[in-house]
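Q: What does the predicted 3D structure of Polyribonucleotide nucleotidyltransferase look like?
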Amino acid sequence: MFDVKKVEIEWGGKTLTLETGRIARQADGAVLATYGETVVLCAVTAAKSVKEGQDFFPLTVHYQEKYSAAGRIPGGFFKRERGATEKETLVSRLIDRPVRPLFPEGFYNEINVIAQVMSYDGETEPDIVAMVAASAALTISGVPFMGPIGAARVGFKDGEYQLNPSLSEAAEGRLDLVVAGTQDAVMMVESEAKELTEDEMLGAVMFAHAESRKVIDAIIKLAEKAAKEPWEIDLGDNTADLKAEIKALIGADIAAAYKLTDKSARSNALNAARDKVKAKFAEADGQTLMTAIKVTKKLESEIVRTAILKDGQRIDGRTTTQVRPIESMVGFLPRTHGSALFTRGETQAICTTTLGTKDAEQMIDGLDGLRYESFMLHYNFPPYSVGEVGRFGAPGRREVGHGKLAWRALHPVLPTKEEFPYTIRVLSDITESNGSSSMATVCGGCLAMMDAGVPLKRPVSGIAMGLILEGKEFTVLSDILGDEDHLGDMDFKVAGTEEGITSLQMDIKVAGITEEIMRQALAQAKEGRAHILGEMKKALGEVRSELSAHAPRIETMQIDKSKIRDVIGTGGKVIREIVAETGAKVDIDDDGVIKISSSDVNQIEAARAWILGIVEEPEVGKVYTGKVVNIVDFGAFVNFMGGRDGLVHVSEMKNERVEKPTDVVSEGQEVKVKVLEIDNRGKVRLSMRVVDQETGEELEDTRPAREPREKRDRGERSDRGGRGDRGGDRGGDRGGDRRRNRGPRPERAEKDDDAPGGLPDFLTQD
């Protein structure tokens, strides 16, 4: 029934299987990719015609993770997969970026690429499998795709590159790198690194590209068995005469416009030139007008690229390695925990840092279960930043991707939770944009965290590089403008410290770049990063030693695991009482690490003292501060060390005689007490009279020392009558006879006769 075609290869210690012909047979191309026990289905469909008036390529990539793939039921009320998560959005972009440049210019048929994770083994990340499945599905679909592409993930540990490491393996190493490319060149790079050198990073990219070629060979073998007939399309360029006409009309205007260094002035001049073209072809049909507009854009690109490649002349007059002027300032927002304004040329970002407690962590529900993220970076790009009117609301795919790039750049230099037990949120609002706003976010976000007192390992800066490539001639541009990005061939972003690279992202608009181009771009980016770091240090050279007065304070303490239950209490009763009484937040984990947080240091100390009272044992001879919680006839019970009670007998309240405890203390009163004795049942005897109630200093005990009870003179036992006869006569005269035979009785305090039965000996005073 099924005409199944299959290819298998051994790759990175696991079997990669590509299969088609069994599932989704009505799609133009469908491939089931299996790697380990992770399975991804990718289906490609393409419209057979172009919508009237369409002048762009409508490629849409959707990546979706099915919770059933990991044997889980989705959380939330609806219990089904909903809108795209951040990870799904990022992987969709990961597939789109290397695929989009491989469609021919002028091909405008709508294409959907839908990749769905059907099985997940908990070790093999499905993003690489999805990229491979998408490439294979496009290759066999018959659409004009100039692929295939291959993809690979690379880790770096102990000086060795690792192919397709698991998440845990990548976390233990120094690199998490994803590379996609054709047989001849690299198309896309996405990475997070722990300060790798340029040579180490380049070696990782080349290693990944070499391994991805094995996947390309497998896709080609599958296509030889199962590919559909290629589409017949006519994309010939018959616009030479139209191009010459437009160049004669506005060529000089465009060249003059691109010599204006101010973005607004340049934009106005370009719009004036474009209006001339629209006026020229106003009477023509819609298709001719659309073609004229496209030719105008090509003409602009040629003029700019020629000036850069031949003369080294950039749009704003800079050299190819020059970075635009930078101005930074920190602490300019009074109520934020940390803030920075970073301006580079006509690109500007307001970045703020907010510090929170553990309960502010982001809960992430994914295939690998629930996890919590303590570092968040959110990027916003309002339309006014480019002087336009447009959509303003929830972040789109671009905002999510740019924010994640900045997150990857800053994440490797964050302190550990033990060093800095805060939840950190960095917010970047782009207020001007003409160039890389994601790299401005890296710089501004770093300064904002330093201003907030986050102890980063080292400052991080970022720079965007561009490329003009014509044949074998190329020029690498440092700190590209927006126009250079649009008209150039590469978007190459590098972030890092003075010690090494923390993130690298690359997108190519042509058929890929060589190792030589990448090496020059990395070297040029290193110089640019160093310059930007120097400018950032003028605003703030090191992390602030003190947190903002508006930031919560968090104190960490470690208790024995056996005491966790005591601190929490039955049903959480004790910990809720601590929070309610002190006003501080208290979090405790399974390892006995307790985090106490509040903006008021006194609240933290109160909660800490309470917890110590629960988990620590009182020391005999030590002075504590306590609170009177109950007054009885023979003394007062004092709560000290948070959860411990002890008795101050009436005789231990003052050196002179005290008739009633209420003459000295009242309920709720704070007193200083010294621990005199702890019996074998844990009952504590306290004293106030030997402690200065004002200063808490211990006083000299002027009262004569008493002998221990067992050594006091009570007369000879023979005077009390023979105990050996007690089993005999127990008549009514017994009590009186015994009292008469005892002899003189030692003096005792009046209240002693009223002491309730069952009290330990030390609660009764002779």
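A (community wiki): The structure tokens above were generated from the sequence. Confidence is low (pLDDT under 50) at residues 714-759, 761-766. Residues 418 and 556 are 8 Å apart (CA to CA).
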